[in-house]
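User: Can you predict the 3D structure of RNA polymerase sigma factor? Sequence below.
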Amino acid sequence: MEIETLWRTFREPLRTFIIRRTHRVQEAEDILQDVFLKIYTRMDSLRDEQKLRPWIYQIARHSIIDYYRKEKPVVELPEELPESNEPDDANLNRELAKCLRTMIRQLPEKYREAIELTELEGLSQKDLSEKLGISFSGAKSRVQRGRQKLKEFISACCHLELDRYGNILDFREKNPACTYNSCK
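Assistant: Sure. Here are the predicted structure tokens for RNA polymerase sigma factor:
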């Protein structure tokens, strides 16, 4: 099938399909052009013409995803930025680290021991299994369960604000009854 025929047949349905997913008419036009460019350049990869329609809509879905991946928010910086000798996240990490030791001590013994040995003392999970006389998979399970229990404890006590990389931007007390108070 020629590209002109595909354009006449699929342009409006694809345009509507894209607009419904992006809610942006102008961007939909750009994505639509991208879709037809991909159709044109990849037409030889279509093996079964009976599957033309699903193939075209799959290209459209991927183009929408690509569009959102490329879209970066524009953030304006203030005229004057505060100067600091030490990044705030380093301070937050140190402050939260004090609390973590207190929270780790609250874990059940077998999980506390696994977390202390691997996370605080740097023991590998393989070495942990040998030290405790348990299987390697048992050691891995203890560490994972200990991490999960610690995460649940932190979530119950503190509200954490993280960036997209998992770095701590801010944290504050959620539950005054938690041991978080003893960390201050």
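The first helix runs from residue 3 to 22. The mean pLDDT is 82.
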